[in-house]
């Protein structure tokens, strides 16, 4: 095993063959297109035979058309059709997932980002996250949650972003939720201040009563004709 070497695996070129008819009419009648029939047809129109063909995704068995994958060891000439009915073939390029960039709290390619860094708690570009004491606010939708929250409506799916119209609607909804959170926090603060003030007043009045009673403990209250108490 000391002299063994690993050979690189084959590099496959994926070609997408869209909307291939499920069946075609031949001299034998209507037949369903098989893998062998599709490989022969691709070789006929492109002059290159694929090493493998397979269905793309999960197709409805009752659907009249299917989308296929064809794998080639060499790049074929794309732009052809099969059985004179399919869609135009093209090289399949896997889409990269949309990333979340923690520096600017945005959803885009991190290699080409020129945005200013922002706080992950409130979305502000004027302060760092560890120094932030502001109310939590999402930079993407304006809602009362962090910018990296997975429940954010403005957060893209795996491969697509919300449209401009959808993003505007999400931001209006987020702003309403944020304003409601501000009002709720303000109400809690007012209630806490009122409770503290009431407690301080009660403590002060109790202290005054204690001072008056301690000044002369030998005084005896006497009821006057007016019904008022006097101390003797």
Write the layout of secondary structure elements.
Elements (H helix, E strand, L loop, with lengths): L12 E9 L1 E4 L2 E4 L2 H12 L5 E4 L9 E8 L17 E2 L8 E2 L4 E2 L56 H52 L5 E3 L5 E3 L1
Tags for this model:
232 residues; alpha+beta; 4-stranded antiparallel sheet; two-stranded antiparallel ribbon; 2 helices; 10 strands; elongated; disordered C terminus
Describe the structure.
The protein is an alpha+beta fold. The protein has a domain at 13-91. It is built from two helices and ten strands; from the N terminus they run E-E-E-H-E-E-E-E-E-H-E-E. It has helices spanning 35-46, 164-215; strands at residues 13-21, 23-26, 29-32, 52-55, 65-72, 90-91, 100-101, 106-107, 221-223, 229-231. Strands 4-5-1-6 form a four-stranded antiparallel sheet, covered by helices on one side. A hairpin with a 2-residue loop joins strand 2 and strand 3. The longest helix is centred in the last third of the chain and has 52 residues, at 164-215. The chain is elongated.
């Amino acid at each position: 095993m000391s002299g063994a070497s690993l050979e690189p695996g084959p590099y496959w070129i994926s070609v997408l063959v869209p909307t291939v008819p499920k069946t075609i009419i031949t001299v034998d009648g209507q037949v369903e297109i098989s893998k062998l029939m599709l490989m022969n047809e691709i070789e006929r129109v492109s002059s290159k035979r694929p090493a493998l063909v397979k269905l793309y995704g999960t197709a409805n068995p009752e659907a009249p058309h299917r989308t296929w994958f064809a794998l080639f060891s060499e790049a074929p000439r794309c732009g052809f059709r099969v059985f004179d009915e399919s869609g135009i073939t093209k090289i399949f390029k896997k889409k990269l997932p949309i990333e979340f960039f923690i520096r600017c709290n945005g959803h885009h390619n991190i290699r080409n980002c020129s945005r200013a860094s922002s706080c992950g708690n409130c979305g502000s570009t004027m302060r760092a996250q560890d120094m932030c004491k502001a109310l939590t606010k999402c930079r993407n939708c304006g809602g009362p949650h962090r910018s990296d929250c997975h429940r954010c409506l403005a957060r893209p799916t795996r491969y697509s972003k919300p449209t401009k119209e959808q993003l505007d609607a999400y931001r209006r909804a987020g702003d309403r939720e944020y304003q409601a959170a501000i009002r709720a926090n303000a109400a809690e603060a007012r209630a806490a201040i009122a409770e503290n003030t009431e407690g301080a007043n009660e403590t002060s009045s109790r202290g005054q009563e204690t001072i008056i009673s301690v000044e002369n403990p030998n005084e005896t209250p006497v009821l006057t004709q007016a019904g008022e108490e006097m101390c003797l």
